[in-house]
Amino acid sequence: MSHGPSRGRVLSAAILLLSALVWLPGTSTADAPEDARPNIVMILADDLDTTSTPVWQAMPRTAALIRDRGMEFTDGFAPMPICCAARASILTGEYGHNTGVLTNAGEVGGFETFRDNGNESHTIATHLHDAGYRTGMAGKYLNGLEHDPGHIPPGWDDWNAGVDNFLYAGYNYTLNENGTFVKYGVAPKDYQTDVIRDKSVRFITDAAASARPFFWYTASTAPHFPIPPAPRHLAETVPTAAPRSPNYQEADVSDKPEWLIDTAGVRAATIAATNDVDYTNRLGSLKALDEMVAAIVDTLAATGTLDNTYLIFTSDNGYSLGAHRLTQKMAPYEESVRVPLAIAGPGIRRGTTDAFALSVDLAPTVLGWAGIALPARIDGRSLAGPLAGDTTGWRTDFTAEYGGAGASGRDGIAQEQIPGTDTPAIYAFDMPSWVGIRTERYLYVRWYERERPLAEREYELYDLAADPYQLTNLIKTADGRAAHADTVAALDRRLRELTACTGSSC
Ligand SMILES: [Ca+2]
Ligand SMILES: [Ca+2]
Fold first, then answer.
1. N or C: which end of the chain has fewer CB within 10 A?
2. Which ligand has its closest atom nearest to the C-alpha of 251?
3. CA distance 96 to 80
4. Separation of 200 CA from ligand 1 center, angstroms?
5. What is the CA(453)–ligand 1 centre distance, in A?
6. How many distinct helices (H) and strands (E) make up the chain?
7. Separation CA 179–CA 480 (nearest Å)
8. Which ligand has an atom closest to residue 252 CA?
9. Contacts of 342 (CB under 8 A, 6+ apart)
10. How remote is the CA of residue 12 from the centroid of ligand 2, in Å?
11. For residues 48 and 86, what is the distance between their CA atoms, to the nearest angstrom?
12. Which string of DSSP letters, residue by residue, matches 16-35?
């Protein structure tokens, strides 16, 4: 037995209307309001520098859809300028000296160190998930996940992490898709950034249809070596020489620390042979990344969620395209530590700011948007002030740290090369550990932090007002040290504070 559906609907509507008229506001639990908390999409590039690479020209859609709709941080920094350490800080809002992750592998690096130190219990994902967010990711998690490819950290509802280093090649990689290993091949449709794009579109489409707010973390390895351009972009990717800035293949490195002096020749030869090819590939691979950003924004718009979604575009760390005879990252110099950062979303001003924004600030910013009280252990601070145009009392310095195992070590960047390329020559590109402090005027660095006793370390000081390309270390000589003794003493004091900081003391 049944009655007519239209009659049923009329009856339901009448009951709802009656309820609204009779019930007092706030007494109804039968019809819970939709969760109005904002959605958050974090788009991470890999090794995308902003010092030498013209990021926004290379990514015009990202410029139009995120930068021009929001705030660009012209002083965005990665204080732990290597993939795993940087990502650890993004996920937790903590410095490397607190996550215990200062490089990609070894006792102070890698996924296993991150997990074994207990960091996975308090990430951006667990905080949001515990607060009711639907969370998901696709792409690169942390270097070393290949050692436990079945691992799915807490806090993620939708997990699509690369579990081998073929991810960097763009093809032939395997993703752990919520517990199922899915192998991708070499067809154009398998191109990594496009696969991650499609997973982004699917997650956002599904999540937008549910009542819960969502957090999506997308981490293609573009433009990290050696990902090629997508097949459709190969023809238009013409050989392009990397920019020759004043510090490109720095002629006189006698002011630099010992490891750089010792390896300057082989480094310069490598850059001469590979740098422009690398740069060309990087620009080509950014095209698909740019299209992914557009696809994400299109999907947000199509699902009616764009106006209530925060979009973050940034990179884990920068990259040296021949500056100081360096390739890769890890260095305390501008090319390694500067990253692009643009954020758009509800209430955010349009424009630019030169407030120092750090990767440790992303987690507290996101938690703030979600209305989650900041845990005391978080070292970064919410960017809400600068995003609203208010930089009153904002930080004027920060510490940076790297914990690699030095030129002869097997830790560091070698661990993130694709299988078959981990030759001894590549280990030579690693560098010793360091800690540094960056103020608005100075960069002060202490080298060999983990390799040598304090009395045997080496130091650098650059006056960025006079020497923005960091060509002259002011304290290489005894005369220089005497002339800058007061400056060094003050920076050294502050460095000691910051390298031991935790929570609000950062
Ligand atoms: Ca990276
Ligand atoms: Ca020099």
1. N
2. 2
3. 7
4. 20
5. 29
6. 15, 16
7. 58
8. 2
9. 62, 63, 66, 67, 70, 71, 72, 73, 312, 313, 314
10. 79
11. 13
12. HHHHHHHSPTT---SSPPPP
Amino acid at 410: R
Rounded to the nearest angstrom, the distance between the alpha carbon of 252 and the centre of ligand 2 is: 5
Residues across the chain? 506
Q: Is the peptide bond before 5 cis (omega within 30 degrees of 0)?
A: no
Where are the chain's structural domains?
39-394
83 classed as catalytic: yes
Report helix, strand or coil for 245.
coil
The one catalytic residue in 83, 84, 501, 506 is: 83
Task: Tokens for 492, please give them.
Answer: 């050294």
Closest CA to 223 of 137, 289, 161: 289
Angle at 261 between CA 257 and CA 266, to 5 degrees: 135
Residue recorded with tokens 């990717």? 237
User: At 326, which amino acid appears?
Assistant: L
Helix 83-92 with 362-369: angle, nearest 10 deg:
30
Residue 438 Cα to ligand 2 midpoint, Å, equals 19
Cβ count near 468 (within 10 Å): 13
Task: Please report, for residues 116, 222, 355, 436, the alpha-carbon distance to residue 72 in angstroms, rounded to integers and kept in the order given.
Answer: 35, 20, 10, 25
For residues 427 and 410, the answer to whether their CB atoms sit within 8 Å is yes
For 39-394, the fitting CATH number among 3.40.50.620, 3.40.640.10, 3.40.50.1220, 3.40.720.10 is 3.40.720.10
Structure tokens at 238: 């013409």
Give the three-state DSSP class for 193. helix
pLDDT in tens, the chain (506 residues): 334 334 444 334 434 443 433 333 333 344 556 789 999 999 999 999 999 999 999 999 999 999 999 999 999 999 999 999 999 999 999 999 999 999 998 899 999 999 999 999 999 999 999 999 999 999 999 999 999 999 999 999 999 999 999 999 999 999 999 999 999 999 999 999 999 999 999 999 999 999 999 999 999 999 999 999 999 999 999 999 999 999 999 999 999 999 999 889 988 998 999 999 999 999 999 999 999 999 999 999 999 999 999 999 999 999 999 999 998 999 999 999 999 999 999 999 999 999 999 999 999 999 999 999 999 999 999 999 999 999 999 999 999 999 976 655 656 666 666 666 656 555 567 889 999 999 999 999 999 999 899 999 999 999 999 999 999 999 999 999 999 999 999 999 999 999 999 999 99
